[in-house]
Design brief:
Layout (H helix, E strand, L loop, with lengths): L1 H20 L4 H5 L9 H29 L37 H22 L8 E4 L3 E4 H24 L7
Antiparallel strand pairs: 1-2
Helix pairs in contact: 1-4, 1-5, 3-4, 3-5
């Protein structure tokens, strides 16, 4: 089932993100390689904010479609989800609505990230019951995306920031503890 494959992708990259940040001291979580760079804590916060927004979008699109009678069941013959037309840019500026806070406790960031993913499971389960191609919302950079593409974007987004976390950890001056 294509939605199960999507869930596996989401889970795999998130597990790597969490593994990279496990055991961080607050000093490590708050450290930035440069003035304009994000800390690992900020990256975790940003990923969580973005995922919450995708979950809210799932609710919004399904409620609107339900209200207009446009909600359709997941097609039995749909064997693959429509891929993203373009890969998200690794160096793109995030919209202000998903900007992170600085200095949040690392334990709280990790707990919130895990709890958000548990709630996202409900969104993915809902996605598996409807035709995602009919639920479309415009992304500020990538244009019209259907609901499944929004969740694919979430997985790619985690992957982009996983690489960023690894870069921060390799940067000269990163605290040992």
């Amino acid at each position: 089932m294509p939605v199960e494959t999507l869930w596996s992708e989401l889970q795999a990259v998130r597990a790597e993100v969490l593994r990279e940040a496990e055991g961080f001291s607050q000093r490590q979580a708050d450290w930035k390689p440069g003035e304009k760079d994000w800390s690992v804590g900020e990256i975790l916060d940003h990923l969580t904010i973005a995922e919450i927004a995708t979950g809210k979008l799932t609710t919004k699109l399904t409620r609107e479609a339900e209200a207009t009678g446009a909600l359709a069941p997941f097609p039995a013959d749909l064997t693959a989800l429509k891929p993203l037309a373009a890969e998200p840019a690794a160096n793109a500026d995030a919209p202000q609505v998903v900007w992170p806070g600085h200095g949040k406790p690392i334990g709280e960031l990790l707990t919130t990230m895990r709890a958000t993913r548990e709630r996202s499971r409900q969104s993915i389960e809902k996605l598996a019951t409807l035709d995602p191609r009919k639920l479309v919302f415009k992304h500020f950079r990538l244009g019209d995306l259907d609901l499944a593409q929004w969740w694919q974007l979430q997985a790619r987004h985690d992957g982009i920031h996983l690489a960023q976390i690894r870069d921060v950890k390799r940067a000269p001056g990163f605290p040992k503890a």
